[in-house]
Amino acid sequence: MTNRQIIRRAAVAAVLAAGAAGTGLLAAPLAQADAPGAAPAAVSQSDLAAARAAAQSPSVLARLGSFFAHDPVSPAGSAQHLAGAPDAAAVPQPVGATVPVYTLDPGFVAGAKGAAVARPDFTATEVAAPDGRTASVWTVRQNGGWQVVNIASGSDETQYAALGAAGGGGTVFREPQVNAWYVLRGGRVLPLDPEARGSVGAGGVSLAAYQRLVHQRYGDKLPGSAYDKAGLGGGFSAEGAGSAGAVNIPAVTGAAALGLTALTGVGLAVRRRRTSG
Q1: Which residues contact 195 (CB under 8 A, 6 or more apart)?
Q2: If the chain, 277 residues long, is cut into consecutive pieces of 10 residues, what is the mean pLDDT of each piece?
Q3: DSSP per residue over the chain, as a string?
Q4: What pLDDT is stored for residue 25 in this prediction?
Q5: What angle in degrees, to the nearest 10, is found between the helix axes of 207-218 and 12-22?
Q6: What span, in angstroms and rounded, lies between the C-alpha atoms of 119 and 15?
Q7: 98 Cβ partners below 8 Å, 6+ apart?
Q8: The predicted structure's pLDDT at residue 36
Q9: What is the C-alpha to C-alpha distance for residues 260 and 245, in angstroms, rounded to an integer?
Q10: Beta strands 145-153 and 270-271: pairing type?
């Protein structure tokens, strides 16, 4: 089991509890809603621009150079590491658009009336190294500004956003507990990756059916549940995990629960993702 899989499994309740606690949700009975809930909140273009500016600041680009140089995933990265510091001229650069990343909403899991299926969690900016490798820079709005909290190898966030847009639009969101990516389109939850297809089938399911599914999976892990009272809902113990503290705006809800560390001179949390075939 990879470190990212361990983190994802252990963070099931943390992601849900972080949002549910803020809305007073307990392990409530599932609302039998046959119609879609509220539309997921939008992230403004000005916020996306500010997030991108944070992701491409000189200090972050310098850290990205070190990230790629020390990345054990690639033989090229290992060779650069053995050779010493990365070439200062070979600075990774952002590519494509900065996108909002939506995550399964705890209120939707709990069955809160009118809850959206997902809500903005963080933004992602894809960056490319000179050798073609990519990484995703995650930013959240904290303490009055946008901050980089994580670098993940690969580009899942922008890849699935583009895939959803190309297929007809809708809200792309993730169910991180099972590494699944979906798009909500026309009142149906449609799969975008193998994990999502294993979850809802190749043709997807109605929004009401998906609500019943995630309530079955996670409804007993919300605040006030036995799982929560056992102390399992407050984070995870994966080696090296930090905490970003409270996230204080509606546009970002899950970064603290994911155990990310803000880029404030004390280090950068790195999460390797397991790639999907």
Answers
A1: 178, 179, 180, 181, 276
A2: 36 39 39 59 94 94 87 47 45 91 93 93 94 94 92 94 95 94 96 97 96 92 70 39 26 33 36 42
A3: --HHHHHHHHTHHHHHHHHHHHTT--SPPPP---S--SPPPP--HHHHHHHHHHHTSHHHHHHHHHHHHT-TTSHHHHHHHHH-SPPTT---EE-S--EEEEEE-HHHHHT-TT--SEEEEEEEEEEE-TTS-EEEEEEEEETTEEEEEEEEES-HHHHHHHHHHHTT--EEEEEGGGTEEEEEETTEEEE-SHHHHHHH-TT-EEHHHHHHHHHHHHGGGSTTSHHIIIIISS----TT--------STT--STTTTT----SSS---EEPPPPP-
A4: 38
A5: 110
A6: 12
A7: 48, 49, 51, 52, 55, 123, 124, 125, 139
A8: 53
A9: 9
A10: parallel
- The separation between CA 250 and the C-alpha centre of its own chain, rounded to angstroms, equals 15
Q: Tokens 């991108």 identify what position? A: 52
Quote the tokens at residue 41.
């909140």
Q: State pTM to two decimals.
A: 0.71
d(CA 165, CA 185): 10
Q: Are 109 and 215 in contact (CB under 8 A)?
A: yes
- Per the listing, tokens 């993940």 go with 152
**Spatial contact of 106 and 224, defined as CB atoms under 8 Å apart:** no
Query: What gap in Å lies between CA 247 and CA 270, rounded to an integer?
Result: 19
Give dist(CA 115, CA 39) in Å, integer: 8
CA 191 distance to own-chain centroid: 16
